[in-house]
Specification:
Shape: globular
Number of helices: 18
Strand content: under 5%
Amino acid sequence: MPVISGPGLPFQDNETSATALSQGPSSQAFEHFLRFKHRALRQLSLDLLDPVMRNDDRTVAGILVLVLLDAMESGSGAWKFHLEGAKNLLRSRQDGMSDSNMRRIVEGLDTFVIDSCLILEIMGSTLARPGALSKPFYSHKMGPGILKRLEQTSWVGCPAYLLEVIFFVHAQRYSDTDLYDSESSPLNHLSSPESLLHHIQNFDPSAWAQEMQSFLFLTDLSARLALASAYKAAVYLYASRVLSKSKLNSSSSITPVKYYRSSEHSEAVDELIYQLSLIRCSDPHFKCLIWPTFIAGAESKYASQRTFALDRLQALWTAISSINVRNAAWVLGIMWQRQDERQLQRETRIQALDSDGSVNLDYENSNDSNDDDFDWIQELDNSPADWLFI
Protein backbone atom coordinates (compact mmCIF):
# COMPACT_ATOMS: atom_id res chain seq x y z
CA MET A 1 0.00 0.00 0.00
CA PRO A 2 1.66 3.25 -1.09
CA VAL A 3 1.77 5.90 1.63
CA ILE A 4 2.73 9.28 0.21
CA SER A 5 5.57 11.12 1.90
CA GLY A 6 7.79 13.93 0.69
CA PRO A 7 7.14 15.67 -2.64
CA GLY A 8 4.07 14.27 -4.35
CA LEU A 9 3.60 13.43 -7.97
CA PRO A 10 1.68 15.95 -10.10
CA PHE A 11 -1.79 14.89 -11.17
CA GLN A 12 -0.78 14.79 -14.82
CA ASP A 13 1.35 11.75 -13.96
CA ASN A 14 -1.59 9.81 -12.52
CA GLU A 15 -2.27 7.56 -15.48
CA THR A 16 1.40 6.69 -15.99
CA SER A 17 1.87 5.91 -12.31
CA ALA A 18 -1.34 3.87 -12.20
CA THR A 19 -0.05 1.75 -15.06
CA ALA A 20 3.27 1.25 -13.29
CA LEU A 21 1.49 0.26 -10.09
CA SER A 22 -0.63 -2.31 -11.89
CA GLN A 23 2.23 -4.07 -13.61
CA GLY A 24 3.74 -5.62 -10.49
CA PRO A 25 6.53 -8.18 -10.46
CA SER A 26 7.11 -10.34 -13.53
CA SER A 27 5.94 -13.93 -13.16
CA GLN A 28 4.80 -16.83 -15.26
CA ALA A 29 1.23 -16.36 -14.01
CA PHE A 30 1.32 -12.71 -15.04
CA GLU A 31 2.57 -13.66 -18.49
CA HIS A 32 -0.28 -16.15 -18.84
CA PHE A 33 -2.72 -13.46 -17.76
CA LEU A 34 -1.46 -11.08 -20.44
CA ARG A 35 -1.60 -13.80 -23.08
CA PHE A 36 -5.21 -14.70 -22.29
CA LYS A 37 -6.22 -11.06 -22.08
CA HIS A 38 -4.70 -10.43 -25.52
CA ARG A 39 -6.56 -13.45 -26.88
CA ALA A 40 -9.84 -12.15 -25.42
CA LEU A 41 -9.31 -8.70 -26.96
CA ARG A 42 -8.52 -10.23 -30.34
CA GLN A 43 -11.65 -12.41 -30.24
CA LEU A 44 -13.74 -9.41 -29.20
CA SER A 45 -12.47 -7.46 -32.20
CA LEU A 46 -13.51 -10.30 -34.50
CA ASP A 47 -16.94 -10.62 -32.85
CA LEU A 48 -17.63 -6.90 -33.28
CA LEU A 49 -17.06 -7.28 -37.03
CA ASP A 50 -19.54 -10.17 -37.20
CA PRO A 51 -23.16 -8.87 -37.51
CA VAL A 52 -24.47 -11.91 -35.63
CA MET A 53 -21.97 -11.94 -32.79
CA ARG A 54 -22.18 -8.17 -32.50
CA ASN A 55 -25.75 -8.56 -31.23
CA ASP A 56 -24.97 -11.58 -29.07
CA ASP A 57 -25.36 -11.03 -25.33
CA ARG A 58 -22.08 -12.82 -24.72
CA THR A 59 -20.20 -10.15 -26.67
CA VAL A 60 -21.51 -7.34 -24.45
CA ALA A 61 -20.94 -9.48 -21.37
CA GLY A 62 -17.32 -9.97 -22.45
CA ILE A 63 -16.87 -6.21 -22.78
CA LEU A 64 -18.22 -5.66 -19.28
CA VAL A 65 -15.83 -8.26 -17.90
CA LEU A 66 -13.02 -6.23 -19.47
CA VAL A 67 -14.37 -3.11 -17.73
CA LEU A 68 -14.14 -4.89 -14.38
CA LEU A 69 -10.69 -6.20 -15.24
CA ASP A 70 -9.45 -2.72 -16.07
CA ALA A 71 -10.97 -1.43 -12.85
CA MET A 72 -9.14 -4.08 -10.85
CA GLU A 73 -5.89 -3.45 -12.73
CA SER A 74 -5.78 0.26 -12.02
CA GLY A 75 -9.16 1.98 -11.65
CA SER A 76 -7.80 4.53 -14.13
CA GLY A 77 -9.18 5.73 -17.48
CA ALA A 78 -9.22 2.56 -19.61
CA TRP A 79 -12.46 1.26 -18.11
CA LYS A 80 -14.59 4.00 -19.65
CA PHE A 81 -13.67 3.09 -23.24
CA HIS A 82 -14.98 -0.46 -22.81
CA LEU A 83 -18.06 0.90 -21.04
CA GLU A 84 -18.80 3.28 -23.92
CA GLY A 85 -18.48 0.36 -26.34
CA ALA A 86 -20.98 -1.67 -24.33
CA LYS A 87 -23.38 1.29 -24.19
CA ASN A 88 -23.15 1.77 -27.96
CA LEU A 89 -23.97 -1.90 -28.59
CA LEU A 90 -26.93 -1.78 -26.22
CA ARG A 91 -28.22 1.45 -27.77
CA SER A 92 -28.00 -0.03 -31.26
CA ARG A 93 -30.31 -2.82 -30.13
CA GLN A 94 -32.84 -0.32 -28.84
CA ASP A 95 -33.26 1.53 -32.13
CA GLY A 96 -36.80 1.00 -33.30
CA MET A 97 -37.83 -0.93 -30.17
CA SER A 98 -41.27 -0.36 -28.72
CA ASP A 99 -41.64 0.41 -25.02
CA SER A 100 -42.85 -3.14 -24.36
CA ASN A 101 -39.82 -4.60 -26.11
CA MET A 102 -37.62 -2.22 -24.17
CA ARG A 103 -38.89 -3.70 -20.95
CA ARG A 104 -38.28 -7.23 -22.21
CA ILE A 105 -34.54 -6.67 -22.66
CA VAL A 106 -34.08 -6.89 -18.90
CA GLU A 107 -34.64 -10.66 -18.93
CA GLY A 108 -32.17 -13.54 -19.12
CA LEU A 109 -28.52 -12.79 -19.79
CA ASP A 110 -29.59 -9.27 -20.69
CA THR A 111 -30.22 -8.80 -16.97
CA PHE A 112 -26.54 -9.28 -16.23
CA VAL A 113 -25.51 -7.09 -19.16
CA ILE A 114 -27.87 -4.21 -18.36
CA ASP A 115 -27.22 -4.32 -14.61
CA SER A 116 -23.45 -4.37 -15.02
CA CYS A 117 -23.54 -1.51 -17.52
CA LEU A 118 -25.76 0.63 -15.31
CA ILE A 119 -23.85 0.11 -12.06
CA LEU A 120 -20.52 0.80 -13.75
CA GLU A 121 -21.89 3.94 -15.37
CA ILE A 122 -23.67 5.29 -12.29
CA MET A 123 -20.78 4.69 -9.90
CA GLY A 124 -18.19 5.50 -12.56
CA SER A 125 -19.74 8.91 -13.13
CA THR A 126 -18.92 9.98 -9.58
CA LEU A 127 -15.14 10.33 -10.00
CA ALA A 128 -14.90 10.86 -13.75
CA ARG A 129 -14.33 14.27 -15.29
CA PRO A 130 -17.24 16.19 -16.87
CA GLY A 131 -17.77 14.88 -20.38
CA ALA A 132 -15.77 11.69 -19.82
CA LEU A 133 -18.91 9.59 -20.29
CA SER A 134 -21.54 9.95 -22.98
CA LYS A 135 -25.26 10.46 -22.33
CA PRO A 136 -26.37 8.00 -19.61
CA PHE A 137 -27.66 4.67 -20.84
CA TYR A 138 -30.35 4.48 -18.18
CA SER A 139 -33.79 5.64 -19.29
CA HIS A 140 -37.12 5.85 -17.49
CA LYS A 141 -38.49 3.63 -20.27
CA MET A 142 -36.66 0.74 -18.63
CA GLY A 143 -38.90 1.14 -15.62
CA PRO A 144 -38.10 2.29 -12.07
CA GLY A 145 -37.70 -1.29 -10.86
CA ILE A 146 -34.36 -1.70 -12.58
CA LEU A 147 -32.55 0.43 -9.99
CA LYS A 148 -34.25 -1.56 -7.23
CA ARG A 149 -32.88 -4.70 -8.82
CA LEU A 150 -29.37 -3.25 -8.84
CA GLU A 151 -29.26 -3.13 -5.05
CA GLN A 152 -29.76 -6.90 -5.07
CA THR A 153 -27.67 -7.99 -8.06
CA SER A 154 -24.67 -5.65 -7.96
CA TRP A 155 -21.55 -6.16 -5.85
CA VAL A 156 -21.45 -2.47 -4.88
CA GLY A 157 -24.09 -2.59 -2.15
CA CYS A 158 -25.50 0.90 -2.69
CA PRO A 159 -29.28 1.13 -2.03
CA ALA A 160 -31.44 2.01 -5.06
CA TYR A 161 -32.71 5.17 -3.33
CA LEU A 162 -29.15 6.51 -3.27
CA LEU A 163 -28.25 5.16 -6.72
CA GLU A 164 -31.10 7.31 -8.04
CA VAL A 165 -29.58 10.34 -6.33
CA ILE A 166 -26.16 9.66 -7.85
CA PHE A 167 -27.70 9.29 -11.29
CA PHE A 168 -29.69 12.49 -10.84
CA VAL A 169 -26.56 14.42 -9.86
CA HIS A 170 -24.74 12.87 -12.83
CA ALA A 171 -27.54 13.94 -15.17
CA GLN A 172 -27.53 17.49 -13.85
CA ARG A 173 -23.77 17.74 -14.04
CA TYR A 174 -22.94 16.23 -17.41
CA SER A 175 -25.98 16.05 -19.64
CA ASP A 176 -26.93 18.69 -22.19
CA THR A 177 -30.45 17.28 -22.40
CA ASP A 178 -33.31 17.06 -19.94
CA LEU A 179 -33.23 13.46 -18.75
CA TYR A 180 -36.00 14.00 -16.24
CA ASP A 181 -39.57 15.01 -16.79
CA SER A 182 -42.72 15.01 -14.69
CA GLU A 183 -43.20 11.27 -15.12
CA SER A 184 -39.67 9.89 -15.17
CA SER A 185 -38.22 10.51 -11.71
CA PRO A 186 -39.37 11.17 -8.15
CA LEU A 187 -36.54 13.73 -7.95
CA ASN A 188 -37.80 16.04 -10.71
CA HIS A 189 -39.35 18.44 -8.18
CA LEU A 190 -36.03 19.18 -6.49
CA SER A 191 -34.90 22.70 -7.39
CA SER A 192 -32.06 23.44 -4.97
CA PRO A 193 -29.05 21.69 -3.44
CA GLU A 194 -30.71 21.98 -0.06
CA SER A 195 -33.79 20.06 -1.21
CA LEU A 196 -31.67 17.29 -2.73
CA LEU A 197 -29.54 17.00 0.40
CA HIS A 198 -32.72 16.86 2.46
CA HIS A 199 -33.94 14.06 0.19
CA ILE A 200 -30.75 12.11 0.94
CA GLN A 201 -31.20 12.66 4.66
CA ASN A 202 -34.71 11.21 4.39
CA PHE A 203 -33.31 7.82 3.41
CA ASP A 204 -33.97 5.31 6.20
CA PRO A 205 -31.14 2.72 6.50
CA SER A 206 -33.09 0.69 9.06
CA ALA A 207 -36.12 0.34 6.81
CA TRP A 208 -33.90 -0.58 3.85
CA ALA A 209 -31.99 -3.18 5.84
CA GLN A 210 -35.27 -4.76 6.93
CA GLU A 211 -36.71 -4.62 3.41
CA MET A 212 -33.69 -6.52 2.09
CA GLN A 213 -34.57 -9.42 4.36
CA SER A 214 -37.05 -10.59 1.72
CA PHE A 215 -34.14 -10.94 -0.69
CA LEU A 216 -31.46 -12.29 1.65
CA PHE A 217 -32.35 -13.09 5.24
CA LEU A 218 -29.71 -12.29 7.85
CA THR A 219 -29.94 -13.11 11.53
CA ASP A 220 -27.80 -10.07 12.32
CA LEU A 221 -28.60 -6.86 10.42
CA SER A 222 -25.88 -4.70 11.99
CA ALA A 223 -23.45 -4.89 9.04
CA ARG A 224 -26.18 -4.32 6.48
CA LEU A 225 -27.43 -1.33 8.47
CA ALA A 226 -23.89 0.07 8.72
CA LEU A 227 -23.40 -0.38 4.96
CA ALA A 228 -26.59 1.56 4.16
CA SER A 229 -25.70 4.27 6.68
CA ALA A 230 -22.19 4.59 5.24
CA TYR A 231 -23.52 4.99 1.71
CA LYS A 232 -26.06 7.54 2.92
CA ALA A 233 -23.30 9.68 4.44
CA ALA A 234 -20.97 9.18 1.46
CA VAL A 235 -23.62 10.14 -1.11
CA TYR A 236 -24.51 13.19 0.99
CA LEU A 237 -20.88 14.30 1.00
CA TYR A 238 -20.44 13.60 -2.71
CA ALA A 239 -23.64 15.39 -3.73
CA SER A 240 -22.90 18.43 -1.58
CA ARG A 241 -19.52 18.76 -3.27
CA VAL A 242 -20.85 18.45 -6.81
CA LEU A 243 -23.86 20.73 -6.40
CA SER A 244 -21.94 23.97 -6.66
CA LYS A 245 -22.13 26.79 -9.17
CA SER A 246 -18.95 25.82 -11.01
CA LYS A 247 -20.00 22.22 -11.55
CA LEU A 248 -23.57 22.32 -12.83
CA ASN A 249 -24.32 22.82 -16.49
CA SER A 250 -26.41 25.74 -17.67
CA SER A 251 -29.44 23.57 -18.48
CA SER A 252 -29.61 22.00 -15.01
CA SER A 253 -32.96 22.15 -13.24
CA ILE A 254 -31.09 22.54 -9.94
CA THR A 255 -30.48 26.13 -8.88
CA PRO A 256 -26.73 26.12 -8.13
CA VAL A 257 -25.13 27.79 -5.13
CA LYS A 258 -21.52 28.10 -4.07
CA TYR A 259 -20.51 25.16 -1.93
CA TYR A 260 -20.12 26.04 1.74
CA ARG A 261 -18.95 24.18 4.80
CA SER A 262 -21.57 23.38 7.40
CA SER A 263 -21.95 21.53 10.64
CA GLU A 264 -24.09 18.98 8.80
CA HIS A 265 -21.20 18.30 6.43
CA SER A 266 -18.72 17.71 9.26
CA GLU A 267 -21.21 15.48 11.01
CA ALA A 268 -21.62 13.45 7.82
CA VAL A 269 -17.84 12.86 7.68
CA ASP A 270 -17.83 11.64 11.29
CA GLU A 271 -20.88 9.46 10.62
CA LEU A 272 -19.31 7.93 7.52
CA ILE A 273 -16.10 7.02 9.33
CA TYR A 274 -18.03 5.61 12.27
CA GLN A 275 -20.26 3.41 10.08
CA LEU A 276 -17.28 2.15 8.08
CA SER A 277 -15.58 1.15 11.32
CA LEU A 278 -18.53 -1.08 12.26
CA ILE A 279 -18.09 -3.47 9.33
CA ARG A 280 -15.51 -6.16 10.04
CA CYS A 281 -13.03 -7.24 7.40
CA SER A 282 -14.42 -10.78 7.56
CA ASP A 283 -17.98 -9.63 6.84
CA PRO A 284 -19.33 -10.13 3.28
CA HIS A 285 -20.38 -6.45 3.19
CA PHE A 286 -16.76 -5.36 3.57
CA LYS A 287 -16.03 -5.76 -0.15
CA CYS A 288 -18.60 -3.02 -0.88
CA LEU A 289 -16.64 -0.30 0.91
CA ILE A 290 -14.07 0.93 -1.64
CA TRP A 291 -16.14 3.91 -2.89
CA PRO A 292 -17.39 5.16 0.50
CA THR A 293 -13.89 4.69 1.97
CA PHE A 294 -12.42 6.84 -0.81
CA ILE A 295 -15.07 9.50 -0.14
CA ALA A 296 -14.19 9.39 3.57
CA GLY A 297 -10.52 9.84 2.74
CA ALA A 298 -11.20 12.68 0.31
CA GLU A 299 -13.18 14.52 2.99
CA SER A 300 -10.63 13.87 5.75
CA LYS A 301 -9.24 17.00 7.38
CA TYR A 302 -7.37 15.44 10.30
CA ALA A 303 -4.52 12.96 10.64
CA SER A 304 -6.68 10.46 12.54
CA GLN A 305 -9.28 10.44 9.76
CA ARG A 306 -6.62 9.98 7.08
CA THR A 307 -5.03 7.14 9.02
CA PHE A 308 -8.39 5.43 9.31
CA ALA A 309 -9.01 5.71 5.55
CA LEU A 310 -5.57 4.27 4.75
CA ASP A 311 -6.07 1.44 7.24
CA ARG A 312 -9.41 0.56 5.66
CA LEU A 313 -7.91 0.60 2.17
CA GLN A 314 -5.04 -1.57 3.40
CA ALA A 315 -7.56 -4.07 4.73
CA LEU A 316 -9.48 -3.98 1.45
CA TRP A 317 -6.25 -4.56 -0.48
CA THR A 318 -5.49 -7.57 1.73
CA ALA A 319 -9.02 -8.91 1.22
CA ILE A 320 -9.44 -8.51 -2.56
CA SER A 321 -5.98 -7.63 -3.97
CA SER A 322 -7.43 -5.15 -6.46
CA ILE A 323 -4.89 -2.64 -7.76
CA ASN A 324 -7.49 0.12 -7.85
CA VAL A 325 -7.58 -0.02 -4.04
CA ARG A 326 -3.86 0.78 -3.94
CA ASN A 327 -4.36 3.55 -6.45
CA ALA A 328 -7.21 4.97 -4.37
CA ALA A 329 -4.72 5.36 -1.52
CA TRP A 330 -2.18 6.87 -3.90
CA VAL A 331 -4.66 9.47 -5.20
CA LEU A 332 -5.72 10.33 -1.66
CA GLY A 333 -2.09 10.83 -0.66
CA ILE A 334 -1.60 13.34 -3.46
CA MET A 335 -4.79 15.21 -2.61
CA TRP A 336 -3.88 15.36 1.08
CA GLN A 337 -0.52 16.82 0.17
CA ARG A 338 -2.22 19.43 -2.01
CA GLN A 339 -4.62 20.23 0.80
CA ASP A 340 -1.81 20.63 3.34
CA GLU A 341 0.17 22.84 0.97
CA ARG A 342 -2.80 25.16 0.44
CA GLN A 343 -3.53 25.28 4.14
CA LEU A 344 0.09 26.24 4.81
CA GLN A 345 -0.09 28.96 2.15
CA ARG A 346 -3.26 30.33 3.72
CA GLU A 347 -1.72 30.40 7.21
CA THR A 348 1.39 32.11 5.83
CA ARG A 349 -0.77 34.74 4.12
CA ILE A 350 -2.73 35.40 7.30
CA GLN A 351 0.49 35.70 9.32
CA ALA A 352 1.82 38.19 6.79
CA LEU A 353 -1.37 40.26 7.07
CA ASP A 354 -1.17 40.09 10.84
CA SER A 355 2.39 41.36 10.91
CA ASP A 356 1.54 44.10 8.41
CA GLY A 357 -1.35 45.29 10.57
CA SER A 358 -3.10 47.00 7.67
CA VAL A 359 -5.98 44.53 7.27
CA ASN A 360 -8.71 43.64 9.71
CA LEU A 361 -8.10 39.93 10.28
CA ASP A 362 -11.69 39.22 11.33
CA TYR A 363 -12.85 40.61 8.00
CA GLU A 364 -10.11 38.77 6.13
CA ASN A 365 -10.98 35.45 7.74
CA SER A 366 -14.70 35.87 7.13
CA ASN A 367 -14.15 36.55 3.45
CA ASP A 368 -11.49 33.86 3.10
CA SER A 369 -13.29 31.22 5.10
CA ASN A 370 -13.46 28.74 2.24
CA ASP A 371 -9.76 28.86 1.34
CA ASP A 372 -8.97 25.94 3.64
CA ASP A 373 -11.87 23.90 2.27
CA PHE A 374 -10.16 21.59 -0.22
CA ASP A 375 -12.36 20.87 -3.25
CA TRP A 376 -11.31 17.33 -4.12
CA ILE A 377 -13.99 17.02 -6.81
CA GLN A 378 -12.39 19.93 -8.66
CA GLU A 379 -8.98 18.27 -8.27
CA LEU A 380 -10.28 15.11 -9.92
CA ASP A 381 -11.94 17.19 -12.65
CA ASN A 382 -8.61 18.83 -13.41
CA SER A 383 -6.68 15.57 -13.62
CA PRO A 384 -6.26 13.63 -16.90
CA ALA A 385 -7.40 10.33 -15.37
CA ASP A 386 -10.95 9.06 -14.81
CA TRP A 387 -11.00 6.89 -11.72
CA LEU A 388 -13.32 3.98 -10.94
CA PHE A 389 -12.99 3.04 -7.28
CA ILE A 390 -15.82 0.56 -6.65
